[in-house]
Amino acid sequence: MSETLTAVLPEHIALLGNPNCGKTALFNLLTGSRQKVANYAGVTVERKEGTLHTAEGRRVKVLDLPGAYSLNALSGDEAVTREVITGQRDELPDLLVCVADATNLRLHLRLVLEARTLGLPMVVVLNKMDRVKKLGLTIDRAALERELGLPVVGAVSVQAHGAQELQAFLDRSLEPRRPSTWKSTTAEAVRTTQHEVHRIFKLAVQEPAVDADPSGRIDRVIMHPVWGFAILAVVLFATFMAVFSLGDVLNGYIEGAFGWLAALVEGRMADGMLRGLLVEGIIGGIGGVIVFLPQILILFLFILALEDSGYLPRAAFLLDKPMSKAGLSGRSFIPLLSSFACAIPGIMATRTISDPRDRLATILIAPLMACSARIPVYTLIIAALFSGQPLAAALTMVGLYLLGVVCAMAVAWVLKRGHQGRSPLMMELPSYQWPDLRSLAIGLWERAMIFLRRVGTIILALTIVMWALYTIPSPRAQAGASELENSLAGEIGHALQHVFAPIGFNAHISVALVPGMAAREVVVSALGTAYAMEGDEDQVGAQLEARIATGWSTATKLSLLIWMVFAPQCLSTFIIVRRETNSWKQMWLMGGYLFALAYLASLVTFQVASWLTA
Amino acid sequence: MSDLRNGTLHLDRLPAQQWAHVIDVPLPHAGAGRAVVIRLMELGFVPGERVCIVAEGPGLGGPLAVRVGHTTFALRRHEAAYIQVAPIVA
User: Fold this and answer.
1) CB distance from A356 to chain B under 8 Å?
2) Element (DSSP H or E) covering residue A280
3) Which of A78, A160, A330, A344 has a beta carbon 3.0–4.6 Å from A68's, enabling a disulfide?
């Protein structure tokens, strides 16, 4: 057919849509695991691109744009979306796929009308079509196509074949591109567009007499001033219980596997440098960190599921008032909650906070949320402090988490002094829905890969360096001193004593804190190496605990715990703060205040505890 | 916040669970409020629309959960105050 020869088919499409339209679930359905996550140049807004197959099997590149209510951007996310589809960032897409929630066209049609003025070839996807019937809505698709002057397809992004209509549409030839008439909006223009939305909505959508969405009824409990807080407390408690108890069981399996591996290598190889490197250095060091993968993933599973279901914005609503006392808004809650898993995704999540001061304050306090990398260090020292007293141990753990939160709020209050009270909130509380399992799985897979990549690169390198420092003798080795004192690491530890002796840290702790700068988890394996122990991480853990229990004073243990709450650690956090704030000054401000807090708090703890226990 | 003429009031003064019509969302002359007002209108707070406060955040001066169209938005009181409404008398 001569017609298909001249037809221009889309090869590169972009998904545009309001937040909560199910756009990311649709993207996951279309692309599956064929995704690439990167950053837009100059900003840390995630750039998600993937490949899909059309009905005829052609490959098409898909870009998932950040969710936007409007092209009049209020947040950094929305600004990127506008820049992409107005051609300021990338090459313009061949086809704009505007995704709208079919159950909420009153809100979502406005963006469709605004996007239409860009003049790009465009298709409207009515997502969540399965819920339309359940809610008793009727949508006249022909009327919608006629009034919008755009092709309309239906989709169910949470069903296996829910994107077939769109995939078939992508084999049709493109309309020609028209010149853009889009311009930054005025109040009058918004009013006119909203009138048009109303007119089209009335023609195309029939609503039932009674709203069948249960969200309103659920909200009466979830957002109740008393019951709401009770439910929030239970949700948070359940999350942390799962992280600690379920995570602990899974950790055991991983520890077992690494122990078996270490024993295997020890049995097969002759004693020597290489075996030492493999068993103590690599297997011990890496194993000691990988065991925390289950805990990180469990925490992320809860956060992703709570977010997808629509609960987290409600929690943010409940916490808005308490957080306003510190000068923040409820919008800071979700980034801070993520920071308990890891400060890096937490800091990246702050980009949905439109107020720059609120966003900066949230970034600067995110490292005070006890991230999962601190769990191994807390666990080790608490076990040495309170062996055989599970209640005291548990309360101490909770206390350390609370200390971080309370101090974070105090720091936010200082940072926002004089600018309190007017922070914007303006946050959608979307209808409740069951989390999309495909999106959960893909989200967890991404997290696991990020963690394992970190383990395979920076943590592996550090582990080898630490092992080498403990193995290589210092050029100024003295007779009579122990092997450890004569190693390069021993020398470094000695030098660091000038700084750390007043807060009760011995040479071993001081040395272990150095690699801990790059990755907190390494503190435990570095201490293990320092106490010159062999074998798998499980053994190192157990013996190390005994050595610490008897070898360190109570004051030293407490001081190190307090240090871990505040200390500016993990180079990745520094890097992400530098990138997100685009400022070296803010990065050093964060590092500086955390170091000062850590040193002062540990100094007071050590001196007071020494005096009390003397 | 002063009361407005003949039965019109700012949304943050509307009693919870009381439906009302949006009368006006006046654009401030200057300042950050302009962007807020434009966004409120883009979200659906335009004259003629029905709104209702479905939940009040805990504590004095807590945020409001406002229903407009098929969506609920959490607004702080200073944001809700931009919207002028007239209660619908049953």
Assistant:
1) no
2) none
3) A78
CA–CA separation, A190 and A212 (whole Å): 30
Q: What are the per-10-residue average pLDDT scores of chain A (614 residues)?
A: 62 94 92 76 75 94 93 87 89 94 94 95 96 91 95 93 94 90 87 94 88 83 91 90 81 84 84 78 74 83 90 92 89 91 85 85 93 84 85 88 94 84 84 89 87 81 80 72 73 87 89 80 75 48 73 91 88 85 90 94 94 86
- The answer for residues whose C-beta is within 8 angstroms of residue A307's C-beta and 6 or more apart is A334
Residue A28: which of A481, A467, A437 has the closest Cα? A437
> Which structure tokens are listed for A96?
């704009």
Q: Is 3.40.50.300 the CATH classification of the domain at A2-206?
A: yes
For residue A171, list its beta bridge partners. none
Domain boundaries, chain A: 2-206, 231-419+441-613
Tokens of A48: 């998600």
The pTM (predicted TM-score) of the whole model is 0.84
Closest C-alpha to A336, from A303, A308, A369: A369
- A74 in reach of chain B (CB within 8 A): yes
Q: Which helix (H) or strand (E) holds A504?
A: none
Beta sheet of A95-101, edge-to-edge order: A35-39, A46-53, A59-64, A12-17, A95-101, A122-127, A152-154
Is B69–A107 a contact, with Cβ atoms under 8 angstroms apart?
yes
**Helix, strand or coil, per DSSP, at residue A600:** helix
Cβ pair B64, B75 in contact under 8 A: yes
Q: What would the DSSP string read from start to end of A415-430? A: HTTT--S-----EEEP
Instruction: Find where tokens 């969200």 sit.
Output: A215
How far apart (Å, rounded) are the C-alpha atoms in residues A407 and A385?
23
User: In A354-459, where does DSSP find H-type helix?
Assistant: 356-365, 375-385, 390-415, 437-454
What the block records as the tokens of A563 is 């240090």
> What is the distance in angstroms between the Cα of B25 and the nearest Cα belonging to chain A?
9
Q: A103 in helix, strand or coil?
A: helix
Question: Who contacts A231 (Cβ-Cβ below 8 Å, separation ≥6)?
Answer: A221, A222
List, in sequence order, every beta strand (DSSP E) within A255-339.
none
Measure CA A47 to chain center. 15
Q: Is there a contact between A320 and B70 if contact means CB atoms under 8 Å apart?
A: no
Q: Is A215 on the interface with B (CB under 8 A)?
A: yes
Q: Which of B28, B14, B2, B24 is nearest to B75 (CA)?
A: B14
> Please, what is the Cα angle at A112 between A107 and A118, to 5 degrees?
145
Angle CA A10–A14–A15, to nearest 5: 125
The token duo for A72 is 């009049």
Mutate to test the interface with A, among B23, B39, B42, B67 (most CBs of A within 10 A): B42
Distance between CA atoms of residues B38 and B26, nearest Å = 10
CA distance A480 to A478: 6
- Residue among A215, A318, A423 minimizing CB distance to B57: A318
- Contact yes or no for A425 and B46 at CB 8 A: no
CB contact under 8 A, B44 and A107: yes
Distance CA A219, CA A204 (A): 29
Is A448 in contact with A297 (CB distance < 8 Å)? yes
**Side-chain-side CA neighbours of residue A480 (13 Å):** 0
Tokens of A334: 């979700």
CA nearest neighbour of A97 among A155, A17, A11? A17
